Amino acid sequence: MENSFVKGGEKNNNHQPPLSDAQSLSSSHSHEHQASIKYLNKYQNSIENKEAFWQEQASQLQWSKPFTQVSDVSFDKNDLHIRWFADGELNVCVNCVDRHLAERADQPAIVWEGDNPDHSISLTYKQLHEEICKLANALESLGVTAGDRVILYMPMVPEAAFAMLACARIGAIHSAVFGGFSSAALADRINNCEAKLIITADLGLRGTKSIPLKASVDEALTLAEGHSVDKVLVVKQPHGSGTPAWNDKVDLWYHDCVDNQSTEHTPPTFDAEHPLFILYTSGSTGKPKGLQHSSGGYLCYAQTTFKEVFDYRDGEVFWCTADIGWITGHTYLIYGPLAAGATTIMYEGVPNFPTLARFGEVIDKHNVNIFYTAPTTIRMLMADANTALSGSQRTSLRILGTVGEPISPDVWQWYYDDFGLQQAQVVDTWWQTETGGHLIVPIPDSGPVKPGAAQRPFYGIEPQLVDSNGDILEGETSGHLVILDSWPGQARTIWGDHQRFIDTYFSTYEGMYFSGDGARRDEDGDYWITGRVDDVLNVSGHRLGTAEIESAALTYSDIAEAAVVGYPHDVKGQGIYIFVVAKTGVESAETLTDSVRSKIRQALGPIATPDHIQWSPDLPKTRSGKIMRRILRKIASNDFAELGDTSTLADPSVVDKLISGRKDLN
Ligand code: PRX
């Protein structure tokens, strides 16, 4: 590939994006669309001949029974259905592992880098196949069958990958829950998907911290009254603390079940629409929703986007730093890279252990060519750039990906200039748990790249901006980001609540998928994601619903009302700010701040810990009782200048009290 803008060489000190020849030539006609002709032609073709385009992509998977129909889709809320390759049959695990054995048996499939810099393991495709077969046999002997739900509450260890792929192999539906979620959050998910089995570890390790995962599972099972879990399979970690609390009726050591199993397993095949996994994510209301993904369409989309967006070349080493508890850890740590026969790195630890130089060291140690992380991590590295860049060369890097939140131009530029030494193209990938894979992204070679912009639709994707009436906006404009037509990787439903799926995504704007994000389209037609337009926060790239945090706060008996908003945070992107009103009669409420904070941690997990808790005698409400969050967001952001019209408030004086309370907190 000719990289369209990386013109070797001089360091760009004025922090302007480097220009490609095409961009320089046409800079006097800035209204001309500057994407490359090659991309535009391919994109145009993918839209005009969508079925043929996806047929061609899907043919790069191994089907046990070929499909005859590419898609069967309706975004009409009265007849919503999304089916791709529906009469085809395949096995996802076979596509990720078995089919590579002929050519890649001895190629590393997963390179595991431990929390401890002296620990790493390289697993070839052959070894990965054996481990998965053993676990698949073990799961079957425990009575797990196709369609059963298996919760994975695991650290970033190879067994987590074995678990996902062994479930896929036998048709069990996995649901990974991030290890940073509390036992209460885990209990909700166990009940919601009616899990039959849980796979966990005695401990997880993140930097110097041990996470007692097995103990959290025990607590979750107590909380999840009437649950359907038969067995808990526990991976013993070398750094574990001996025997955790144990219930002989339920708990089993992973090694006791797996070690003696056969390394052969005959894979059954499944319909393309057979659910592959459920992944919970936060919305603006209610409890997290379990997005259900398919087998054939999802894998086709994971493989296609992986190869195209990262311009993957045979033999390259790919490192995605996401945890397997998130969608990025599914699509671009496991399914995409393995479907493509790549070598994927799995890192157990955190960016700053033993020091902030670790990521660079791991890149050099394993000769990583493509690196994929979140802006929050880049900001963390940038904040102590000397340490982050010390002790590594990073010359193997060719592509640098970013995901999860808007990346500001200065952070983008540092990533490109300093971390990637101006040798690696930055791809800012916009997508969501619901979308399964990248939707808007500057594909390498698609034209000049703009720092901070996700830019261009992926092949087959039709984004649009709409106003609040759902009318499509033309040209240079801002609006709500919708997608007009389906793509194979899209989530099919919310587990157990199809109506909520329709209401959340297909009812705001009829006939369109509503992303919940706002975006701007510039004069070249490029998209700039501006962030959520609903009550969802993005904290260090993690999605959290304000409603969830508020209900956790309200379980604290001294609190009458709570309102959560986000505010700009240097490293996390958004911080969590909570306004709380104490019940009448509660004295010295401020002294309760720490216990409210720990109550929320306990309910949801450390990632939902509020950064600021402000007690207030009241909240700003309209006369009809609606909280005016716009005002709270301004106050939390220390931005008191333009609060807008406050005359519709039932009690406008509350604003001054909130401002003085905010100043006291600073
Ligand atoms: O607001 C957008 C933001 O993250 C949300 C999706 O979060 P989640 O489902 O947890 O998936 C994260 C990983 C795909 C989006 O609605 N987001 C994601 N990527 C970007 C982004 N915002 C701006 N730029 C991005 N590249």
Automatic annotation (TrEMBL):
EC code(s) of this entry: 6.2.1.1
Root EC class: ligase
Residues covered by the AMP-dependent synthetase/ligase domain: 98-483
Organism annotation: Marinibactrum halimedae
Protein's name in the database: Acetate--CoA ligase
Ranges where the record places region Disordered: 1-31
Family per similarity comment: Belongs to the ATP-dependent AMP-binding enzyme family.
Biased composition (Low complexity): 19-28
